[in-house]
Structures are given as structure tokens and as C-alpha cells.
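Researcher: I'm preparing a figure for a lab meeting and need a structural model of a single chain. I don't have an experimental structure, so a prediction will have to do for now. The sequence is pasted below. Please return the structure as C-alpha cells so I can convert it later.
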Amino acid sequence: MPDDVSKHGMWSSRLLFVLAAAGSAVGLGNLWKFPYITGENGGGAFVVVYLVCIALIGIPVMMAEVMLGRAGRQSPINTIRALTERAGGDAWWPLIGWMGVVAGFLILSFYAVIAGWAIFYIFRLARGEFDGTDGSGANDAFNNFLAEPLEVTLWHTVFIAATVFIVARGVVGGLEVAVRWLMPVLFVLLILLVGYAAIYGDFAQGFSFLFSFDADKLSVGGVLTAMGHAFFTLSLGMGAIMAYGAYVPANTSIGTTAVTIAVLDTVVALAAGLAIFPIVFATPGLEPGTGPGLLFVTVPVAFGSLPLGAIVGAVFFILVSFAAVTSAISLTEPAIAFLVEEYNAKRPRVAITIGAACWLLGIGSVLSFNVWADVHIVGELTFFDFVDYVSGKILLPLGGLLIALFAGWVLPRAIAKEQLGLEQGWKWQVWTIGIRFVAPIGVVIVFAYTIYESAMA
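Model: Understood. Here is the structure written out cell by cell.
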């Protein structure tokens, strides 16, 4: 049996693990994508489908990742390797861990670039740069910023440096300290922003946009979108949750914890919508957008037209930056843990090496918006688009599928029962059906739909 304590350290409490895992799940996508796709796909009807998908796909796979991590007490690569040997499984199963490490590395390389934009926008809003500006002016300001590779690289560097500083300090001194402070502050800032939106925004219209139950808007594509987001929003398939699971105390309930994390992730996403869309609707001429158009153009214009908008807008981008940091530190953990184990290397040195390599790869994404804007890797995909596509639309769903199959079909049932604390009964049967059949089928459907959608685009 593996040791009950990871060599990398342990979370000091269940609460810290919940905050860390929630921090991993709560990222840039929660603050713009989920609220937007909710409003576009029937509001409350979409939320109901999303919650069902979270229950059927997201939570079972998250429980599997945490269970595997705690059973192995090592990096995802070595955890799957050790559990495969104990199960007498095929030697290729550790590929799960490698896919997670590569996916996390690729995602962080471009995620850090976008997070750098958010940090820069803290200062842009704070100094009142968008006071009284319109959509055209904000769009020009954003495009002019992206056109300067050196300036974009500077903020990319700042974010990578902050991430490396945190992860280099270890589980207790780095990861725990970060989530102990950043996550509560994130929640407080979000509550303040919702309150501001209720006072100065069109809260009724924003609330209706998010929660009106309009089943007519919920198409087959919307259901598949809900399935996909339910999987991706919990940071599944990249090894981050498995790595964090290795540091979970033995007496922590995995099922209860997974449900808590899923609820927190959903609440934050919906609260972000209540903070953003009332402000957008209160500003004439603005419509909810998606991607950078909402986060870096529409939102600055909206705040720039309201009382105390410069200050509150800066607070909003502080919130975005905090969410990005808590996600980024989880993306590095699988790779750092593996290299520390494999080469007995010092964690700070490994963190700096990983950070430097990630920074270098991220330069490709920086240049995709200026110098390399006309360079296409495959088809019409720029370097940024290609890295996003490979990591998010291929590696993550494949990783999630293999995790479900390994946990459901390869891992000895005795290990699963011990880690989950489930005896033969209805709870065990529900989880088994979910991880063996429902989650894999759901991930395959999402994977196929994503590839089809990309091919038709």
C-alpha cells in the first residue's frame, strides 16, 4: 500500500483542499463563457441540463481523479503507473498521466497570456482610461495593446513569475497559502460586484437573461454544450485534480468534497453573470458578447459609464486575475510533482524550469495576435488557436475518458471502495454505473460533437 502521506506535503484540512480544487475549477471561462452560454441557451433550462450533466459526468470523474490521486500519493504519472502494476493492467495506462502533464503545460502557455491581459487591465481601469469611452474606442484600445508584442510579453512574464513563485514554495508554503487568501478574497470581491450590479446595473434584465426558463432556446447543440462545459469546467482530464488528490487527508470524504467543489464552481459562474450582465444591459448600445469581446471590450465600456466605474472595474479585473492564478498553479502541479519524484530535484528549481519553458512556448501565443497573425499551423488555426485546440478539444476529453475507464474497469474494486468509503449498496452502484458507462459515453459524445463542430466551422 502507498504511504498515507505524500512526499510533496498534505493539505492541512478538507477545507483547504476544497478551496484549492475550486480554485483550479474557477477560471477565466467561469467569468465570461458560462454566463454567456447560459443566457444564449434558455437560461434556467440550460442550468438544469448543466446540473444534471455535472451530476452524471463531472462529479463521478472528479471523484475518480481524487480517488486515484489519494490511492497513489504521487504525481499522476507515477500514480497511474503504480496502480496499473497493482491491478495487473496494460503498460500503456500511465499515458493518462503524461497526457495530463502535456495538456496542463500547453494550456498554461496560452492561459498565462490571457491572464496577463487581465493584470494589465487592472491598471487601465484604475486610471480611468475607459471613462466615457464607447465600444469602438475600447475595441481600438484592446487591439492596439495586442499589436505590441513586447508589452503583451511583459504581462505574460508577470503572470508566469507569480505562478512560479507560488508553486515553488510547495504544497503548504505555496499552494495552501495562495488558496487560503486568494479564494476568500475572490468570493468577497464577487459579492461586492454583484451588489454594485444590483445598485447601478439593470439587475432585472441581467437576472432574466441568466435564469428565465426558456426551453424553446435549448437545442440539441445547447444540451451538448452543457455536457461539454460540465466536464471542462471542473478541470478534469488534465491531472490537476489527481495531483491535488494525492495531498488529501485519508479521512476526507471524496464524494462530499466533489459535490461541494461542483456546487462552488457553479455558484461562482452564475454569480459572475449577475455581476457582469446587469452592468452590460445598463449601458446603451452594448450586447452580451463572448471571449475577449466581452471581457476586454464590453465590460470596460460598461464600467466606464457608471459611478465609481474605474475603481469597480479595476476590482473586477483583480477578481479575474485571482481566478486565473488559482487555476494556473494547479496546471503546473502534475509536471512539477513528477520531475521532483523522478529526479529527486529541488522543487524551486523544477518550478523555475517548468515556468521558463511554459513562458517560451507562450511567446508563440503572444505573437499570434501581431507578428504571426497571418501564420497558420493547420488550416486557419494560428499558433494560439492550435495549442488551444490540441489541449482543450483533444487531450482533455481523451484524458477524462481514459480516467473514467481506468477507474471503472481496471482499478481493483477493493481500492475504489476503500478510497471512496462506499460499501456494496446503492451509492456504490450509482458511482459504478456513472464511471463505467454514463461518464465515458457522455465524454465520447462531447468529444465527437466538438470535433464535428470544429470541422464544420
